[in-house]
Predict the 3D structure of the following.
Amino acid sequence: MSMVISPSSADTLEQRFRNALPGGIDEATLRTVDEESEWLEVTRGTVQPVHSSFDSGAMVTVWADGGTGIAATSDLSESGLRAALDQATHWARATAAQAIAVAPPGLDHSGSYASPRERSWDELALADRIELLRSVEAQLTVDDRIADTQASLGRRDVRSLLISSAGGQIEQTFNFVYPMLVATAASGNDAQTRTYGRGSYCGQGGIEVLDRYGFRNAAPQIGAEAVALLEAPNCPTGTMDIVVAPDQMILQIHESIGHPLELDRILGDERNYAGTSFVTPDMFGSFQYGSELLNVTFDPTVAGQLASYAFDDDGTPATRHHLIQDGVLVRPLGSATSHARSGIAGVANARACSWNRPPIDRMANLNIEPGESTVDELVAGVEHGVFMHTNNSWSIDDSRNKFQFGCELGQVIRNGELAETVRNPGYRGISRNFWRNLSGVGNNDSFAVMGTPNCGKGELNQVIGTGHASPVCRFSAVEVFGADA
């Protein structure tokens, strides 16, 4: 990975930043981000144009006279940094009288992080990467009714450097890999699509990420399941138990736990874009969010998970915390700034998608801790229900309370045993009631570490990756529906 800000130039950049600092301020930080990416795709046997990109720039933040100001620039010369710092200082002072006073961070510590990587992306030549995609894409066509196929592979390498006038310096390097497979089967006017986890089999690392999730061997099953869905009946409708696979659980966690617990949303900052939250500040420490089986952690220390890091983008050291313990809500997803505003202890989750966006409260790795049940035991406890696999649609109201999800594939559970495949399975509920009906949590054998690569939030919009991990889970008395409902 060739970066503009190499380790050898970090000292030079720091000197430029310190030379450009204006007088009379309390503190200033410089956060640079370099990003390099490559995206490959094969569709219906045809190699698509390779898309590659490189982006580089910096954001400065200034604390002065009780206000905070920011400015972004792609000019990292001393004069460019000085212009950005002067602009940020202007805004800090101009808005101080109206701002919610937040003390400067006093960022005087240093540290580093690098994604664990066993095999570099470049170990496979471009021609070999394309040939791999051609091979797995061809394996999707298991039947003449397969009408559309796609295999894609992306990687992003990101390096950030955070320097503070208080003496701190934090350097972090991230390597992300995103594999995807899609097969659509068609007959007459009917079509059914099956995917490789709907993009959730992604993580940090190198080429080994593909083997971590079985990418090279997954295509035949995906193609076969697309065909099976063509022949399957619609999902039954009614109130029943459901068992939920990890590749659907991650969206359930994301939408009905992750976003409701973002503290800036609870404080009202998101109401104009993506809605607020049904959670209120007085709930922490007492509110029964779910059954006593529900244990949710914020854990940016999981090796290889999509949103792992050692420090957030404000420089706060990242540590593991329970957000929900034995069903009780104990801590929000609130950064140091939101903590200062609300007085509620949060986590290290100030995150920005790029150099030209300020860090905001974002979920990172948000995981349901494993329980003690095997998948067979979870299924055996269901008299009549559906096993839900792989999210394909989601809808939730602007307080993150009422939701409705659709899945790619379902399996009927009858008298404690898996029966026929059904298509178009869906379910709906109210967040607190749904999680309180959690009746079984799978053990480590069903636990999967996955991610959501495209979470949007904020104005201006920021699209960022979030990590989610979960075992198979069971819920009782859920409103289930099929396409005819």
In short: Residues 78-95 form the longest helix (18 residues).
